[in-house]
Amino acid sequence: MADEIKMPESVLAGPEGTRLKTWGPPEELAAVGKSIPKKGALEKVTGRAQYSFDVHLPRMLYGAILGSSQAHARIGDMDIRAAMALPGVKTVLTPADEPRLRWDAERFLLDTTARFAGQEIAAVAAEDETTAEEAVRLIKVRYDRLPVVIDPEDALKPGTVLLQPQGNLWKGQPEIYQRGNIEAGLAAADFTHEASYTTSVQHHATMEPHGCVAAWSGDELTLWDSTQGIHWVRDFMALRLRMPINKIRVISQYTGGGYGSKNGIKPFHIIAALLARKSGRPVKLFMSRADEFVASHHRPQTIQYLKAGVKNDGTLTALYSRIVGQAGPYQENAMWAGRAGDATRRLYHCPHVKTETYTVHTNSQSPIPCRGPGTAENLCALEQFMDELAEKAGMDPLAFRMKNYSQADQQKGLPYSSKGLAASYQKGAEAFRWEHPKPGSLRQGEKFRGVGMGSLLWAGNETEQSQAMVVLQADGTAQVVAGISNIGVGAETIFTQIAAEELGYPVEAVGVSYGDTHSHPYTINSSYGSRTTPISGPAVRNAAADAKRKLLALAASSLEAGPADLDIKEGKIFLRNNPAKAVPVREVTKRMGRELIIGTGRRPANPEGFKVDIFGAHFVEVEVDGGTGSVKLLRAVCVHDSGRWINPLTAESQIQGGFIQGAGMALTEERVMDKRLGIQLNRNLHEYGLPTVLDVPESVVAVDPRVRDVSNNINAKGLAEPPTVGAGGAIGNAIYNAIGVRIRDYPITPDKILAALEGQRR
Amino acid sequence: MSEKKIRVTRRQFLKGVSAGAVAGAVLSSDSFIGRPSQGQVPPVGEGQETRAITFRVNGSLYRLGVEPRRTLADVLRKELGLTGTKVACNRGECGACTVLINGVAVYACTTLAVRAAGKEIETVEGLAQGEKLHPVQEAFINQDAAQCGFCTPGFIMTLKGFLDKNRTATREEVKAALAGNLCRCGAYHHILDAALAARARL
Q1: Which candidate from A56, A207, A686 shows the least CB-CB separation from B184?
Q2: Residues of B whose CB is below 8 A from A48
Q3: H helices then E strands: how many in chain B?
Q4: pLDDT tens, A639-677?
Q5: In terms of DSSP H, where are the helices of A338-420?
Q6: Does the pLDDT of residue A762 top 90, yes or no?
Q7: Closest Cα in chain A to B70
């Protein structure tokens, strides 16, 4: 591996003052770095996997929520008589119920002022879904309408209805970041350039909708939830319901998609629990597909104005961005509309940088993290902008980016724990056979071909606590016990690889259990931020190291050697200075009796003095049909500097899948909203524009630049979100290269392509 | 917000539909052959009169009473406890509910259960012979074609139905056959890899 930084000692801290081994490249390892199928795959392909959606309890009722039909209104009288009279309806909850439960400081769980269409205002539980939905329709509500504001730029105009006491600008003022002096930077430039970009709302559109099954037994609540993190759900339920944590059990063995939408709890979780308590029966409350579009929240829309100063040799002297993000009406989650500036501030080397972020309250559902929040939006704009600058400087886009390479993090002034961006450029260009033709030059009849590339940055994880257990069984097998959920990316599988590697066991001998807060103590609060591997993986390694240490202590007595003289490989304990003298692990573990060896491990802190960031580069080729305006993705090469790839097979899945989500954001996915009424008009998967198998490129090649990271004992950085954040900019650049006209508004739909070509003809 | 209400009761509407409804008592869950029902006896009152249907699911014969308005997906999941078939959109857009009826892939969420009367239904639960997996299932495991897995049963049934009749299909033809199944995780490439690996083994 290239340019190795020495592993900081603190990172290799093992149990009882021991030191873990530095792992070498995958060729030297037995389980880590191997492509193996996922645990739980068998359950998925046989239909045995039980999702929370599949849970069916005796006497279970079905819940449904009445969401406000108005984007901004006071809820007047509510007549539930017809709903209650419907046979099969068991319970109705309204804002009139006492005691009134709060959701947070700003609103009640069922409030009498609705500030976005779909806000929860009542709920029912009935014998079946159809009856529950009918009952919701029978609830008569008097809405006293208030003025609605949807467009964030409208929301900032004087005279618009105010959604927060300090006005519609979150915190009352823009968030400003400055480095150096922007005016000086612009003055030092040989040329300047400016452009404005827009990105649209993207919905998570998980295949399994949001929902849960709530069941009480005495004062204990069990919740099967479709979630990215059982522990956060449990802890928030305890907080909101004012219950002891040990009286709540959250179970989630399989979650049908999250992508950032299923962290913690939403009002429906509490509503389900209350319906169950009031009716005295378990309640299953899952969103219909139409309601799911609102209940999941979404990636916010942004407007990004960028201005740069550049020297003739391509050096950036100044970078300015004014960012407007559309938030919802509440403080909660508003922050997610103000995150589209991190790459602008940090990805490229520039001494003078200023960003002004306006997060604006509107009468639409609040945003929430959606795979690569903020940065996906940011890079759609920034990467096209970099290409615009490169063109003006007369440079190849790749060369321009290398010219403005930052060796250290510019915000904290720290060196990186690893930075494989240069390696990504180089390996990507090689794998893609990168050559940058003149824009619009590759044309055959109505078909235009083009290539584009983009860099990517995703903020790496800060230090965070995590712990795990590894249990050794008497027969030489082992079990990793991890308090996580399974969102389909294979975290539970890589835990077995990590444990097997540390223990010296064959990976087939290591199992893993997870998914129930009663049985699996906290390992991570929720799987978001691309951090389950780098945060929890090192804890698993330490737990395995602890188990191994105890096992070797047990072995030492029977092998007449000290524990330090022993090691384990391929399930055999052997003498270091005489490897031929080996015994199978089970010969030792069978003497444990009933006292199991349980290894516990914690994650050491990130090393001081390093910034952890994740890098990469995407290269894309497209063909644009000038007659229809449609864009065909031909091929992509995605290089991801995520440190060690623990399982290349599942890493490839993440990269291909993430790229497709980024492609959807760039080309087809869009919320269509009626701005006067604040209602989404396309609340179904086809009109929303979810990518199908016909929309994906023939190949998405995943490349590992193999740059070693030193921020944790498994040398891993995250890989979940980077593939999404890198796609849109590269695709936008490829489209420009194909047709010679730049489209700065995402999604780049056929109508925009046709309008651009039409404009070019005139 | 006021709406004009259409003043027709459910029963009046149903009388206009020639459904051949069986008069009399609601058939209870123990009137069919096979697994005991895990749930739903329809509520009395506004529910429809049930109709007796017989069909074969994964080789087993079932006789049950269902309301004509029930979808096949809902009956498979609730009455038969076969929750491998998923409901993700409930409006025939995503394919997560795909099952085979007489060998043909259909969306079970937009198929009325009564329409399946007298037919042979295959769901994902019926593919493996005990623990001997179907080649499509094995390929999905080995190619990592299932990420969150919620779309997986639908894809597998579509593929099974297609490959049963198209052993020599090209990659493009396989792709076209899968166009009615959505995967939000974006596992399409591995799904295609799995499809082609399975095709080679069939």
Answers
A1: A207
A2: 84, 125
A3: 6, 5
A4: 999 999 999 999 999 999 999 999 999 999 999 999 999
A5: 342-346, 375-393, 397-403
A6: no
A7: A130
B73 contacts B87 by C-beta, under 8 angstroms: yes
At a CB cut-off of 8 Å and minimum separation 6, what does B163 contact?
B136, B169, B195, B198, B199, B202
Residues A53 and A105: their CA atoms lie apart, in Å, by 31
User: pLDDT category, A559, cuts 50, 70, 90?
Assistant: confident
Q: What is the pTM of this model?
A: 0.94
Residues in contact with A503: Cβ distance below 8 Å, sequence separation at least 6, in sequence order: A470, A478, A510, A544, A547, A548, A551, A568
Answer whether A45 sits within 8 Å of B77, measured CB to CB: no
Given a contact cutoff of 8 angstroms between Cβ atoms, the answer to whether A542 and A10 are in contact is no
Rounded to 10 degrees, the C-alpha dihedral A150/A154/A157/A163 comes to 10
Average pLDDT value for chain A: 97
Of A509, A501, A569, whose CA–CA distance to A537 is shortest? A501
Chain A contact for B198, CB < 8 A?
A: no
Q: Which residue of B has its CA nearest to A126?
A: B43
Pairing mode of beta strands B120-122, B98-101: antiparallel
SS3 percent helix, strand, coil of chain A, rounded to 5, is 30, 25, 40
Q: Quote the tokens at residue A518.
A: 């009663």
Query: Is the model's pLDDT at A145 over the cut of 90?
Result: yes
β-partners of residue A175 are A357
A158-185 pLDDT, tens digit each: 999 999 999 999 999 999 999 999 999 9
Strands A113-114 and A191-199: unpaired
**Cis ω before A747 (30° cut-off from 0):** yes
- Which residues of B are less than 8 Å from A259 in CB distance? 184
Residue pair A264/A527 in contact (Cβ under 8 Å)? The answer is: no
Residues in chain A with CB shorter than 8 Å from the CB of B96 are: 207
- What distance in Å separates residue B187's CA from the closest CA in chain A? 6
Residue partners of A85: CB distance under 8 A and separation at least 6: none
Residues in chain B: 202
Q: In whole angstroms, how large is the CA radius of gyration of chain B? A: 19
Closest-CA residue of chain A to B45: A87
Contacts of A649 (CB under 8 A, 6+ apart): A35, A36, A37, B144
Provide block-wise average pLDDT over 10 residues at a time, chain B (202 residues): 41 40 31 36 62 97 95 97 98 97 98 97 97 98 98 98 96 97 98 97 92
Q: Which of B69, B71, B144, B181 should we substitute to test contact with A (largest number of A Cβ atoms within 10 Å)?
A: B144
CA–CA distance, B126 with B139 (Å, rounded to integer): 17
**Which pLDDT score is estimated for B48?**
82
- B142 with A691: Cβ contact below 8 A: no
Q: Can you tell me the distance from the alpha carbon of A135 to that of B74, in angstroms, rounded to the nearest whole number?
A: 19
pLDDT in tens, A380-432: 999 999 999 999 999 999 999 999 999 999 999 999 999 999 999 999 999 99
Closest CA to A496 of A37, A48, A44: A37
Nearest C-alpha of chain A: how many angstroms from B51? Answer: 18
For residue A206, which residues of chain B lie inside 8 Å, CB to CB? Answer: 148, 150, 184
Q: Is the ipTM of this structure higher than 0.85? A: yes
pLDDT at position A558: 80
pLDDT of A66 strictly over 80: yes
Range A438-463 average pLDDT? 96
Q: Does A53 contact B86 at a Cβ distance shorter than 8 Å?
A: yes
A413 alpha-carbon distance from chain centroid = 27
- Separation CA B149–CA B145 (nearest Å): 8
In this predicted model, what pLDDT tens digit does every residue of A225-268 receive, in sequence order? 999 999 999 999 999 999 999 999 999 999 999 999 999 999 99
Q: Looking at chain A, how many residues does it have?
A: 762
Planar angle of CA A698, A702, A703, nearest 5 degrees: 140
Which position has the token pair 């399994």? A208
